[in-house]
Amino acid sequence: MTKLQYRGVSYDNASHEQPSPQPVDHAYRGQHYDAPLRHEAAPVDTEVELQYRGHAYHHRQAEAAQQVNQG
Hints:
Order of helices and strands: EEEEEEH
Mean pLDDT: 78
Structural class: alpha+beta
Radius of gyration: 19 Å
Shape: extended
Helix content: 10-25%
Largest sheet: 2 strands, antiparallel
Distance between the termini: 26 Å
Number of helices: 1
C-alpha cells in the first residue's frame, strides 16, 4: 500500500470512509436532490454536438486515448 502525504504529514487512506451509494437528500445552489453522494459518470453520447463560446465540438474519445497512449 502506498503511503500518502499532505503538507508533510503521512496518512493511510485505507481507513477513510467511502461515500455511500444510498440516496441522500441534499441541496446544491437552491436545488434539492435525492441522489447518492457517490458520483458515477454517465456514458458518453458521441452523437451529441457540444458548444462552448460559439464553437462546436464533437467527442473525440479515440483520438484522446491515442494521444494519452503515445505520451
